[in-house]
Design goal:
- FG-GAP repeats lie at residues 17-70.
- GO terms for molecular function: integrin binding.
- It comes from Sinosuthora webbiana.
- This is ITA7 protein.
- InterPro entries: Int_alpha_beta-p, Integrin_alpha_N.
- The chain has one helix and four strands; from the N terminus they run ββαββ.
- The chain has one domain (22-75, 87-107).
- Helices cover 4% and strands 18% of the residues.
- The longest helix is centred in the middle third of the chain and has 4 residues, at 51-54.
- With 107 residues, the chain is mainly beta.
- The protein has one helix spanning 51-54, and strands at residues 35-37, 43-48, 57-62, 71-74.
- Strands 1-2-3-4 form a four-stranded antiparallel β-sheet, with no helix packed on it.
- A hairpin with a 5-residue loop joins strand 1 (35-37) and strand 2.
Length: 107
């Protein structure tokens, strides 16, 4: 067998695929424009600044788990009530265009 294989290939990470399309949802997702790993290399953080009218979102998942969407940080939908002091993010905010790790996000 002479096929080329990448031993570090963890499969495909397409969290926008199969979700509602259009610019007001995941149609202009741009998943992975920014990406990072947690310091312990257990979590991958992927930004998707094109979602929700360019408000964007941040997807965080444990790379050792097969479970889908473990944590998604996004702006609330219009009329959605969010506990705490979370405020809506304005259109064109590009949340997820730059991603770095924070210990408090992965604990």
């Amino acid at each position: 067998d002479l096929s080329v294989r990448d031993e570090l290939d963890g499969g495909e990470w397409k969290f926008c695929q199969g979700r509602p399309q259009g610019h007001e949802r995941f149609g202009t997702c741009q998943q992975g424009l920014a990406a990072a790993f947690s310091p312990d290399r257990r979590y991958v953080l992927l930004g998707a600044p094109g979602t929700y009218n360019w408000k964007g979102l941040l997807f965080v998942t444990n790379i050792e788990s097969a479970a889908p969407d473990q944590r998604v940080f996004r702006t609330p939908q219009p009329g959605e009530r969010v506990p705490g002091a979370a405020a809506d993010v304005a259109h064109n905010s590009y949340l997820g265009s730059c991603v770095c790790h924070l210990l408090s996000v992965t604990r």
